Amino acid sequence: MTVAAFLSVVLIHLAAAISPGPSFVVSVRTAASEGFRVAVALAFGFGMGALLWAGGAMAGLAILFKLVPPLFTALKIVGALFLLYIAVQMWRHAPEPLAMAAEGTPPRSAASAMWFGFVTFASNPKPAIFFGAVFVGLVPPDTPLTWRLAVLAAVFVNEVGWYILVARVFSLPRARHAYLRLKTGIDRGFGALIAAFGLKIGLT
User: CA dist 70 to 33, 49, 77, Å?
Assistant: First the structure.
């Protein structure tokens, strides 16, 4: 593997990580409602989810999905149902005040937020196809282990770094106060977005 190919993988994945999706919506809401610390833990969960699919694609999971389409379909349905569940909960609880947010006490532990981030990212199997498509052209089968580990590390750093940046921006006092003031409408809007992403994952 060449340095140019490695940098191509890094840049392609960074562009994909930045594009809005379920993780972005969850990150924004978490940062605004629960603060920077919880949102950073969530970002690490996203990073671990990215490692799951990148590692799986590198191990041939994307090819397995092509060979056994029902497996991919089943995972898509499960992922879509999970995202729809999140959407329903956000919509239902939108009018409820966040009593702990005003006190600066995060209602979730870092471990809980990390697990939630991992499950949220892992609920969408499409990254395995994305990574598979990228790796086929840029990470040949004879790529040394050191380069493979470097690619996985870069995927993790891209994912976590981007969502830590999102967490920093949307956990600032002005953003947080705006969220708390408009919580019902924002939560229901985010719930609708999550539902749309879930339906897109399940139907495409």
Answer: 38, 22, 10
Q: What is the mean pLDDT of residues 106-110?
A: 70
Domain ranges of the chain: 3-9+22-203
pLDDT in tens, 154-180: 999 999 999 999 999 988 888 777 777
| C-alpha distance from residue 50 to each of 30, 78, 153, 160, 182 (Å) | 19, 18, 10, 9, 32
| DSSP per-residue string spanning the chain | --HHHHHHHHHHHHHHHHS--HHHHHHHHHHHHH-HHHHHHHHHHHHHHHHHHHHHHHTTHHHHHHH-HHHHHHHHHHHHHHHHHHHHHHHHHTTS--HHHHHT--SS-HHHHHHHHHHHHHT--HHHHHHHHHHHHHS-TT--HHHHHHHHHHHHHHHHHHHHHHHHHHTSHHHHHHHHHTHHHHHHHHHHHHHHHHHHHHH-
